[in-house]
UniProtKB/TrEMBL annotation, chain A:
This is Sugar ABC transporter permease. GO terms for biological process: transmembrane transport. It comes from the Bacteria. It comes from Jiangella asiatica. Residues 55-262 form the ABC transmembrane type-1 domain. The lineage of its organism: Bacteria, Bacillati, Actinomycetota, Actinomycetes, Jiangellales.
Automatic annotation (TrEMBL), chain B:
It is a multi-pass membrane protein. Residues 66-259 form the ABC transmembrane type-1 domain. It comes from Jiangella asiatica. This is Carbohydrate ABC transporter permease. The chain crosses the membrane at residues 12-31, 70-91, 103-124, 136-154, 191-213, 238-259. GO terms for biological process: transmembrane transport.
């Protein structure tokens, strides 16, 4: 409890205070920070760099997590059920490897793949000399993040699909329902809670991702400077700690909103959830 | 209908093939380059050699960083495990009003105060405590981040251990800590193993926290040192990087395979992770 309080709770509260000062990493303001009130917040909100970063983050989260990871993860879980077991485990293992290999390694693998002169992608596509990370930086990190994180959605949707009663699939098949109708009328109503959980969790995680820094470092010209990378630059590289604390707090509040929405919706869903849990425990 | 079914089968395999290529392509380099006598960034059939591993072994800088990774991961795992076991056992056995709310709040807190969002306050706190550039600081910060989830998951396991075992131990005069050690821990072992592996995997790959808190290369773990290999050196030493990457990835992959074989993937409680 104490450790949590010291290393999790205390920083959060301290941020509140620091966000109101002009503390800097070095120089005069490092010794005796002045109380500047809400200036850091108004500065942040009117800073074009901050707005740019927030916009980039929204684009990044929307395309890589909500669209990319969810849909690809679901498609994988759906298709995998009907593949031969050997092929299925190969596909799943490769997807999982992309998820569990450390971020530093993964980042370098992508730098190698997208390399301008000798990269594997250019060699395969015959597009020699295309600098993917300079010409399509945002698209690159979005594809990278889909590659990196799809495994979670796949795992979650696999277990969700396994929880759909087989008799309902059978009924749909007898009624002559096609794939689309089956998905809409049988699968969707059954896994609505899982879709919600998945969307909110990957939103939260993708919002807080730092790995793209290892690939593009926010460049070129800030075109991939998502929020985490932006805070790092402002606070720790440029040394404006007070402003960085204000930015941290803004980020924590956004996290809080997403998490609160999640817990709220989860709470509404609780009776059925509890039922499911107790059956699992009985089985165990 | 049979044409449609055939199209469905073809579509499935085309999709599976596409996914396989998409996910495997970046990974292939990790398998070819370490064994190539003259590796480039391109995937190619290696001119087989184990020379790169010898180079890596002789590089004190690289091996020390792997050692640092082990120290940080093991330290975090040990502290998390001990504290989470004690806390979850207590929370599972004692009736405090609002206990479940407390747990939910902790979990909520740990998922909103992430490493990225709390980067600045963490850095400042560690500066004030004089724990900058010390591995202890990294271990404590990481432990604080992992504990809520660890407690939450372990409490599920503690709840499912039968109380009658503890009661009979108490009849024979065992103290609470003795009961925990000789009765509860052996029963909750799968849970403890899961938490241990999970903690190690989380810490092993963590880049941000050690990147911010550690300054001297002697202290830095592999995740950070690897990054400096290819930004500071001008031309990156590809043989070294690829071999190092492979060696650095093997432990987590092995642990994942072990857990998966032994316990399968489990989703726990309300928040799934």
């Amino acid at each position: 409890m104490l450790v949590i309080a010291v290393f999790l709770l205390f920083p959060a509260i301290w941020t509140l205070y620091l966000g109101l000062t002009n503390w800097r990493l070095t120089g005069l303001a490092a010794r005796e920070p002045d109380f500047v009130g809400l200036e850091n917040y108004t500065d942040a909100l009117s800073d074009p760099d901050f707005r740019n970063s927030l916009l980039l983050t929204l684009v990044f989260v929307f395309f890589s997590a909500i669209v990319g990871q969810s849909i690809l993860g679901f498609a994988l879980a759906w298709i995998a059920r009907k593949l031969r077991p050997a092929l299925r485990s190969v596909v799943e293992t490769v997807v999982l490897l992309a998820w569990i290999i450390p971020a530093s390694v993964v980042a370098f693998l992508w730098l190698a793949l997208l390399d301008r002169r000798e990269g594997t992608l250019n060699a395969l596509l015959g597009t020699d000399g295309t600098a993917w990370l300079l010409e399509y930086p945002m698209q690159s990190i979005i594809v990278f993040n889909i590659w990196n994180g799809t495994a979670f959605s796949m795992l979650l949707f696999s277990s969700a699909l396994a929880s759909v009663p087989p008799s309902q699939f059978e009924t749909a098949r007898m009624a002559g329902a096609g794939t689309f109708a089956t998905l809409r009328d049988v699968v969707l109503p059954n896994i609505r809670g899982h879709i919600l959980t998945n969307t909110l969790l990957i939103t939260l995680w993708t919002f807080n991702v730092f790995a793209p820094y290892l690939i593009t470092a926010g460049g070129p010209q800030g075109r991939t400077e998502i929020l985490g990378v932006y805070i790092y630059r402002v606070a720790l590289r440029d040394g404006a700690l007070g402003q960085g604390a204000a930015l941290s707090l803004i980020m924590i509040i956004i996290n809080l909103v997403v998490a609160a929405v999640y817990l709220r919706l989860l709470g509404r869903d609780r009776p059925s959830r509890r039922g499911r849990k107790s059956t699992r425990e009985r089985r165990a | 209908m049979s044409v449609r079914a055939a199209l469905g089968v073809i579509g499935r395999y085309v999709f599976a093939g596409f996914v396989l290529v998409f996910f495997a392509l970046p990974l292939l380099w990790l398998l070819t380059a370490p064994f190539d006598s003259a590796p480039s960034v391109q995937v190619s059939v290696p001119d087989f050699t184990l020379e790169n591993f010898r180079t890596l072994w002789d590089n004190p800088y690289a091996m020390r960083s792997l050692g640092n990774s082990v120290i940080i991961a093991a330290g975090t795992m040990a502290i998390t495990l001990v504290l989470a076991a004690l806390a979850s056992y207590a929370l599972s056995r004692v009736r405090i009003p609002g206990r479940d709310t407390l747990l939910y709040l902790l979990l909520l807190l740990s998922s909103i105060v992430t490493g990225t969002a709390a980067m600045v306050p963490t850095f400042l706190l560690m500066t004030e405590l004089g724990l900058i550039d010390r591995q202890l600081g990294v271990v404590l910060v990481l432990t604080g981040g992992l504990l809520p989830t660890a407690i939450f998951i372990l409490k599920d396991f503690m709840d499912s251990t039968p109380r009658s075992y503890e009661e009979s131990a108490r009849v024979f005069g065992a103290s609470s800590l003795q009961i925990l050690r000789h009765v509860v821990v052996p029963i909750a072992r799968p849970g403890l193993a899961t938490i241990a592996v999970w903690a190690v995997v989380q810490v092993w790959g963590n880049f941000l926290v050690p990147f911010i808190l550690l300054r001297s290369p002697e202290q830095q773990p592999a995740a950070v040192v690897m990054f400096t290999f290819y930004t500071e050196g001008g031309q990156p030493n590809l043989g070294l990087i690829s071999t190092f990457s492979l060696l650095f990835s093997i432990p987590v992959v092995a642990m994942y395979l072990f857990v998966n074989r032994r316990y399968g993937f489990r989703f726990h409680g309300g928040i799934k992770r």
